[in-house]
Amino acid sequence: MAEFDIVIKGGTIATAADIMRCDIGISGGRIAALGEGLDAGARFIDATGRLVLPGGIDGHCHIDQPMSDGSVMADDFTTGTRSAACGGTTTIIPFACQVKGRSLREAVQDYHRRADGKAMIDYAFHLIVSDPSDQVLGQELPALIKDGYTSFKVYMTYDELKLDDRQMLDVLALARREGAMTMIHAENTDCIAWLTEKLELAGRTQPRFHAISRPKPVEREATHRAITLAELVDIPVLIVHVSGAEAVEQIRWAQGRGLRVYAETCPQYLFLSEDDLGQEGIAGMKCICSPPPRDKANQPAIWDGLAGGVFQVFSSDHAPFTAGDAKGKLVAGITPPFRRVPNGVPGIETRLPLLFSEGVGKGRITLQNFVALTATSPAKIYGLHPRKGTIAVGSDADLAIWDPARKVRITNGKLHHAVDYTPYEGMELTGWPVVTLSRGEVVCEEGAVKGTPGRGQFLPRGRTWPCCRTRGLADAV
Ligand code: DUC
Ligand code: ZN
Ligand code: ZN
Question: Is the pTM of this model over 0.85?
Answer without folding.
Answer: yes
